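Appendix B, example 12.
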Amino acid sequence: MSLVATGEAESLEDIKAHIPMKETVKADPEAHAVYEKTYSVYRELYEALSPSFHKLKHLRNPGK
């Protein structure tokens, strides 16, 4: 997209013509389901631990 923005290419189709496509990768629904569950736990942990990480940061770098 930056090539289009800088005028180096006229369109996204112009860029695609120079990039060979070897294969199309399709999403794995089972892997996606596992990711969604895992990500949900990650978000819970992040929210729960975030204040502690901020405290540790300030202990290591007082005044920041």
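Residues 29-60 form the longest helix (32 residues). The radius of gyration is 22 Å.
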